[in-house]
Specification:
Type Iii Antifreeze Protein Isoform Hplc 12; eight-stranded parallel beta sheet; about 20% strand; TIM Barrel; alpha/beta
Length: about 350
């Protein structure tokens, strides 16, 4: 089973989910709000908190149109939206990373340019690549060169594009690549979530850990995330906020601390339900049932010693500590070696071979 050291945890295909609470820019340019979101993510049970490191000028041109729901986020220009909250610099991220270390939660931020790749190398245990940059070969090479694990989202990507991104990262030096299913809609309608794609990714990239980056509205029971985990996504990333009613940014499709707690609790139960035995077999706790609830071969006719046992002379009844019924064909046609009455449970010592 493949395993990867990811921050403070070792992750494999049967791990409890490694939950990334993506603050992104839900801090709205406030360092104090960023600290609050880190603390809430830790309290809610997240393993990591993730930001986004960029400057609008190195991310989007002035005429880049929106690709999100403009009813939820009114800004129609990518450049104008990104410019609102691109004020954090290395010193800010360094302070946030120190705070994360202090409270024992992994600090991560997605880089969008060479400068952020360089300064984040001092702060992050692994890198995260956004879906939109899956074909940004120069950026992938810069990240791969840092020789750290890389998580890459695959929203709006084909299998061939994912394979190329993975190869580019590994050729550049990335030791591990984790692949997240993702739909690049903000928000994602549940009919478009297509969580079955997780199964396809697991079957295609058998040597990789698979996860899920979610953009659906959080449902009451966090069923979307639980379903993704059941399907094999052991890295779960979702935007995180302190107030889902705040307008714009990613607040409208983010989870809050209560959602996070619900998912952590349900994923713990799912982990127990999935168990640790990976091949179908009887377990120790079934031994009593295996014997008492299965059937044995009983006589339903009185037989004398030397009689040939015919099919109409026998029946099958519980419990199963006599001759088990899978031996039915071996008993028919054999001689019984002692007088026996109807209702008698046959033993191998009763059969004359």
């Amino acid at each position: 089973m493949n395993s990867i050291k990811l921050g403070k945890r070792v992750i494999d295909n049967n791990s409890e989910p490694y939950i990334i609470a993506e603050v992104g820019v839900n801090h709205e340019g406030s360092f104090e709000q960023a600290l609050e979101l880190i603390n809430l993510a830790k309290e809610g049970g997240a393993d990591a908190v993730k930001f986004q490191s960029y400057k609008a000028e190195t991310l989007a041109s002035k005429n880049s149109p929106a690709y999100w729901d403009t009813e939820e986020e009114k800004t129609t220009s990518q450049f104008n939206l990104f410019k609102k909250y691109d004020n954090f610099n290395f010193d800010d991220y360094e302070s946030l990373a120190k705070h994360c270390k202090k409270i024992d939660i992994d600090f991560v931020s997605t880089p969008f340019d060479k400068e952020s790749v360089e300064y984040l190398d001092k702060l992050v245990p692994y890198y995260k690549i956004a879906s939109a940059d899956i074909n940004c070969i120069p950026l992938l090479r810069l990240v791969g060169n840092k020789k750290k694990p890389v998580i890459i989202s695959t929203g709006c990507a084909s299998i061939d594009e994912i394979k190329l991104a993975k190869k580019t990262l590994q050729d550049a030096g990335a030791p591990n690549v984790i692949i997240l299913h993702c739909i690049l809609n903000y928000p994602t309608n549940i009919k478009n979530a297509n969580l079955s794609m997780i199964t396809d990714l697991k079957q295609t990239f058998t040597e990789n850990i698979i996860g899920y980056s979610d953009h659906t509205h959080p449902d009451e029971g966090m069923i979307t995330l639980s379903t993704a985990y059941l399907l094999g996504a052991v890295i779960i990333e979702k935007h995180f906020t302190n107030n889902k009613k705040l307008p714009g940014n990613d607040h409208y499709h983010s989870m809050d601390i209560n959602d996070l707690k619900i998912f952590r609790k349900s994923s713990n139960k799912i982990k127990q339900l999935k168990g640790s035995i990976f091949t179908k077999q009887p377990i120790k706790e079934e031994e009593k049932s295996r014997t008492n609830a299965r059937r044995s071969i009983f006589l339903k006719s009185n037989l004398n010693a030397g009689d040939i046992i015919k099919e109409e002379d026998i029946t099958f009844l519980r419990p199963g500590f006599g001759i088990t019924v899978d031996n039915w064909d071996k008993i028919v046609g054999k001689k019984i070696n002692s007088d026996s009455k109807s209702g008698y449970m046959l033993k191998w010592s009763d059969i004359n071979e």
